[in-house]
Amino acid sequence: MNDRAWRLRRSLILTPGHRGERLAKAATLAADSLAFDLEDGVPPDRKPEARRVVAEALRGLDFGRRERVVRVNAIGTPEFEEDLAALPLDRLDAIMVPKVEAAEQLHRLDARLDALPGGRGTGVIVMLETPRGVLNAMVIAEASRRCLALFFGPGDYTLQTGGAISPAGLAMPRAVIAAAAGAAGVQALDAPFMGLRDTAGTRDDALLARELGFSGKVVFHPDQIAVVNDVFTPDAAAVAHAERYVAAFEAASARGENVAYVNGEFVAMDLVPRMRRILATARAAAEAG
Question: What highest taxon heads this organism's lineage (predicted)?
Answer without folding.
Answer: Bacteria
